[in-house]
């Protein structure tokens, strides 16, 4: 079961997931890449737990504890919401939260909820009464093993994490977004693996052309993530919004192109007869839709301020 595999990875002392901005961000990205290169759904759950740990550390100086398995449930789709209200013993959450990975398997979650003062982040022990989860409605085979579903809260006690707005208004939010791109990159490597194996066994120039194209794409993605890690470690509290949007869009394009190239090079055979490859393609197609696609590009365009990437001065 994928959640069990994710928990085993998190408990493995050889798997290093240092928090971003502490000098070893590339090690963090590399661990996420390796996890998704092995199994995309497992890596996605590992990323969520690691993100929760980093969020707790950044906002309140805490972190996750051994034996816990955390999700970050921050989607805010139209039509459903979670409200937080003061109760007799503190805050209580009520409402419906969609797109919860690890819905029936996480022990704890960070959940965004609406308060009179604005949207706020809360930590919830999912073993408390009033929590019910359902992941049976996931129809696609892609990312099905992430146990993603809908969670309903009925006056569930919760601890406020920071103040209203703190979840989004922090440098680590964008560091976490680049961590997701590292997972996409790991997924692209997994999808590419059969092509690399086929290319090593043939002199077919057309097949080798596809291998070369995919190799250049993956080298570009790895370079993006290396650069991002260096910039985060050099200035952990500095602005990284533009960096995050650029890296995420670039890696999304790389993943999309890798899926296309591998399919064109190898034909339908691996998709039909190799269950591991077929699952990886299905997983990655769904996972990269976590990007907001062209909306993200529109935001990125507004962040440039006329500054062109590369060394100064600006071209005349």
From TrEMBL:
GO molecular function, one term: oxidoreductase activity, acting on the CH-CH group of donors
Domain of life: Bacteria
Pfam families: Acyl-CoA_dh_M
Transmembrane segments: none
Alphabetical list of InterPro entries matching this protein: Acyl-CoA_Oxase/DH_mid-dom, Acyl-CoA_Oxase/DH_mid-dom_sf, AcylCoA_DH/oxidase_NM_dom_sf
Domain called Acyl-CoA oxidase/dehydrogenase middle: residue spans: 87-156
The name this protein goes by in its record: Acyl-CoA dehydrogenase
